[in-house]
Write a structure and sequence with these properties.
It is a single chain. The protein has nine helices and six strands; from the N terminus they run ββαααβαααβαααββ. By secondary structure, it is mainly alpha-helical. The strands form three sheets. A two-stranded antiparallel sheet has the order 1-2. A two-stranded antiparallel ribbon has the order 3-4. Strands 5-6 form a two-stranded antiparallel ribbon. The protein is elongated. It starts with a strand and ends in a 20-residue tail after the last strand.
Length: 321
């Protein structure tokens, strides 16, 4: 990832394109440009057969400049940095601050590209791209531009793993109203990234998160249950309550202490996986709700005057899990 700072002092994390993808994009652009040049040349030669040799030579040079040099510049300017080859490879040319390029950027890149790509068969461009930390050729450096990847593969680390089957429904009576949003976020961060952690570090982190969660719910972790499995089961129970509240399949439940298990063998409602979160896991300090607040899903709702929260009808809104 490459961090770019915009004019509004906003840091952008972009993935610079490397030599293989850039070379493939340039090759596709050259194939299209040469095909267009050959087609236009054949038509022009047939149309100017009556002219003398000097006029035909001048027309050929002008055609070369317009098609092989002016064509890519025009395409990048109109498409804001996306030629045909770059669109096929998922690349885009942007400014150093992350904004779209303009005519002057495309002009500098195109003119220098004639020297480092066409005249040297791409040798200078390949050497410059390999030496540059962000894979830039000389045209990019002089134009103040950067080629970045638009299509980044999505990893599988954003999905919360399901708990063991023998823990299904075991925490259906757990009171989750006092758990703050920061603790839910930290638990999901750990569950989505625990496969990337050292086993000993991951185990100690799971123990701290499980202890914090047990302190907020007022019920200890059941003996014999691994802390990671306990966290996954509690998160699944919370998602199940949100699904029941959202789709109207019964009350959310969970108002009393742990110990009232749900009906055995009852199918669990559909639970959507949690969204991908940031890789950093903070398990020391969590933002807590104010005194007397009732936590609904992800947000803490302060108590209202004139009635309890149980008497108010549900709105059907459920924040994303």
């Amino acid at each position: 990832m490459s961090e770019l700072v915009t004019g509004e002092a906003v840091a952008l994390e972009l993935r610079p394109a490397r030599l293989p993808s850039r070379a493939l994009a340039v090759l596709l652009d050259l194939v299209v440009a040469v095909a267009a040049y050959v087609a236009v040349t054949i038509a022009l030669v047939a149309a100017t057969a009556s002219l003398d040799e000097a006029a035909q030579t001048a027309i050929s040079i002008a055609l070369f400049v317009l098609v092989l040099v002016g064509g890519p510049i025009l395409v990048e300017t109109l498409s804001h940095g996306r030629s045909l080859g770059k669109m096929a490879c998922g690349l885009r040319v942007v400014r150093d601050d992350g904004g779209p390029i303009r005519f002057r950027h495309a002009l500098v890149r195109g003119l220098i590209g004639v020297i480092e790509i066409l005249m040297t068969l791409g040798v200078v461009a390949c050497i410059a791209s390999l030496v540059s930390a962000r894979g830039r050729r000389l045209g990019d450096v002089f134009a103040g531009a950067l080629v970045v990847r638009e299509r980044v593969p999505v990893g599988q680390a954003g999905f919360v793993p399901p708990p063991p089957p023998w823990l299904a429904g075991r925490f259906s009576g757990l009171d989750l109203s006092a758990v703050p949003d920061g603790l839910w976020l930290a638990v999901r961060q750990y569950l989505t990234r625990m496969g990337q952690l050292d086993p000993q570090v991951g185990w100690s982190m799971a123990e701290r998160l499980a202890a914090d969660l047990a302190e907020r719910t007022g019920a200890p972790v059941p003996p014999g249950v691994p802390p990671a499995a306990y966290l996954a089961a509690v998160v699944q129970e919370r998602q199940a309550r949100e699904a029941r509240r959202a789709f109207g399949h019964g009350p959310a439940g969970g108002g009393g202490p742990m110990g009232t298990a749900g009906p055995a063998g009852s199918p669990a409602p559909p639970v959507h996986p949690a969204a991908a979160v940031a890789p950093d896991v903070r398990s020391a300090a969590y933002p807590s709700a104010g005194p007397g607040a009732v936590v609904r899903g992800e947000r803490a709702v302060p108590p209202q005057q004139g009635g309890s929260t149980a008497d108010r009808p549900s709105t059907g809104f459920a924040p994303p899990a």
